[in-house]
Design brief:
The structure is a single chain. By secondary structure, this protein is α/β, with parallel strands linked by helices. The chain is 43% helix and 11% strand. Helix 5 packs across helix 13. The longest helix has 18 residues. The two termini are 39 Å apart. GO terms for molecular function: 4 iron, 4 sulfur cluster binding; 7,8-didemethyl-8-hydroxy-5-deazariboflavin synthase activity; metal ion binding; transferase activity, transferring alkyl or aryl (other than methyl) groups. Keywords: 4Fe-4S, Iron, Iron-sulfur, Metal-binding, S-adenosyl-L-methionine.
Length: 401
């Protein structure tokens, strides 16, 4: 199978216009208009994005999102074999939604040395192709620490793609080191940083950020930092944390701001939405998103983000069960084997952390999709050999029925 086909490098709008239209869409004037808008090369407006969130028929919205996903990627669903390693849980901020952060004197506070970080990869190094690493804003570390870290990983595990640092971490490192964001990213990229995971977007509306994460980078700064990364050839993901205090309209504004940034810099490769998990956090006014709401967010994201290729079902947060459903409602990517994860599990996730590639492929196949193993930047692909699958375990997170 040619990489171009596996990558979805075809005219998806043309394919969309030629696809059979389910009755639930053709009989709905609004959804029919949305389909026509996308097929003709136009964009779902902010106003229509709100209406999609409010539409009375979730199955119909999901059917339209699945059409777009299939027009882009056919029946393929992508994954990789990765490991999460967090550098530190010590942070100078105290965001209200974060259960991971610890003060420097907390009994559970830690800060990995370069040697400890590399050691955590060792037992997984023959199974993974990516390390995903984010952490707190350490009060003492400068760029020198991260250069030593990334150079150490590159030297020891040259085959491993290093996807690390949120935008606010980049800003913090730059400030601590007396450097510009551009100079910081350039130096880190030269030392072994391959891409940015995109975390920390939360909601790109500053009135929301002031309530849940005061002191973090502003909405504009998040977008600017990713734009600078894109200008340096560093690809990034982008995210959305929903279900705290934001309105539906603010979610749509967030999606619109991401696609406008993509129009400018073009380096977002995947969008990762995930709901707020309330355990051990400090937002009593927030409400836990139901699985139904998670699925709607994924579906509407697929319809609005016409210029961001991939939509990820982040199973570390939404659980395997909801992630599997979302593969038929707009998502084309499911976060990989992971191996280890702390941030979501500190907040209440109970998703399994020892899923093998065979198990993950089996989960994908149970949705009548074809599992495709990819690299971190979606440039190489192979259809996963489905022989000798192990028994799959689907463990939704606590409280999401």
């Amino acid at each position: 199978m040619a990489d171009s086909e596996l990558a979805g490098h075809w005219n998806w709008r043309e394919r969309l216009s030629a696809m059979p239209v389910p009755l639930c869409i053709s009989s709905d004037p609004f959804l029919s208009t949305c389909l026509e808008t996308l097929a003709e090369g136009s964009r779902i407006s902010v106003e229509d994005g709100v209406l999609l969130f409010e539409h009375e028929s979730l199955p119909s919205v999901c059917a339209l999102a699945n059409m777009v996903k299939c027009a882009r990627f056919g029946n393929y669903v992508y994954f990789n074999e990765n490991l999460h390693v967090n550098t530190t849980n010590i942070c100078v901020l105290a965001c209200r939604f974060c259960a991971f952060r610890k003060g420097p004197r907390h009994s559970e506070a830690y800060a990995l040395s370069v040697e400890d970080f590399i050691h955590r990869i060792e037992s997984f190094s023959d199974k993974i192709d990516e390390v995903h690493s984010v952490g707190g804003l350490h009060p003492e570390w400068t760029i020198d620490h991260y250069i030593d870290l990334f150079e150490g990983v590159r030297k020891r595990y040259p085959h491993v793609h290093l996807k690390a640092l949120t935008a606010v971490e980049v800003k913090h490192i730059a400030n601590r080191s007396g450097l510009s964001v551009r100079a910081t990213l350039k130096a880190l990229n030269d030392s072994g940083l391959d891409s940015l995971p995109g975390g920390g977007a939360e909601i790109l509306v500053d009135s929301v950020r002031d309530r849940i994460c005061r002191g973090k980078e502003s909405s504009n700064e998040y977008l600017q930092i990713h734009g600078i990364a894109h200008s340096l050839g560093i690809q990034t993901n982008c995210t959305m944390l929903f279900g705290t205090v934001e309105t539906t309209a603010q979610r749509v504004i967030h999606l619109d701001r991401l696609r406008k940034q993509q129009d400018l810099s073009g380096g977002f490769q995947c969008f990762v939405p995930y709901p707020f998990l309330p355990d051990m956090t400090r937002i009593p006014e927030a409400q836990l998103a139901t699985s139904t709401e998670v699925i709607r967010v994924i579906a509407v994201s697929r319809l609005m983000l016409d210029n961001i290729p991939h939509i990820k079902a982040y199973r570390m947060n939404i659980g395997d069960h909801t992630a599997a459903i979302s593969l038929r409602t707009g998502a084309d990517d499911i976060d990989g084997t992971v191996g280890h994860e702390e941030i979501m599990h500190e907040a209440g996730s109970s998703t399994n952390l020892d899923t093998s590639a065979h198990e993950l492929a089996r989960l994908i196949e149970q949705t009548e999709s074809i599992p495709v193993k990819r690299n971190s930047i979606y440039s190489t692909f192979s259809i996963f050999d489905g022989d000798n699958h192990e028994e799959i375990r689907t463990l939704p997170i606590a409280g999401q029925a």
